[in-house]
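Mods, move this if it's the wrong board.
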Amino acid sequence: MFMGEYQHSLDEKSRLIIPARFRDDLGEKFVLTRGLDRSLFLYPLSEWKTIEEKMKTLSTTQADARAFVRLFFSGAVECEPDKQGRISIPPHLREHAGIQRDLYILGVSTRIEIWAREVWEEYAKKAEESYETLAEKIIGIGI
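Not the wrong board. Structure tokens:
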């Protein structure tokens, strides 16, 4: 399980160091793709296969399903970290997330999310304002 929040920066070659705590659970290869809310999602291969199976059940006759699947899979890249635990983030994914240099890496249960610093800070500020309300709505009894 992935959890925690880490601040990092891309190096001059647009490489990102994956936090050491995440590397074992990610494995030797993993998948990076467009996420939601202007983030990137990073999945271990086992989780990626589970998501792929779920996506196969979506109807190809529904325009929204086709559009989402196209964007989700066409943006995906298989990553293999170097000896220092770095991966390259392709330009199309940096653009999607608005990543210039500074970013956050978040552990979110079965995936890792990568956010541009400014985008995450704005999102987190808004989400924190309604944190308790969200908990009541989603969980029903609080935490």
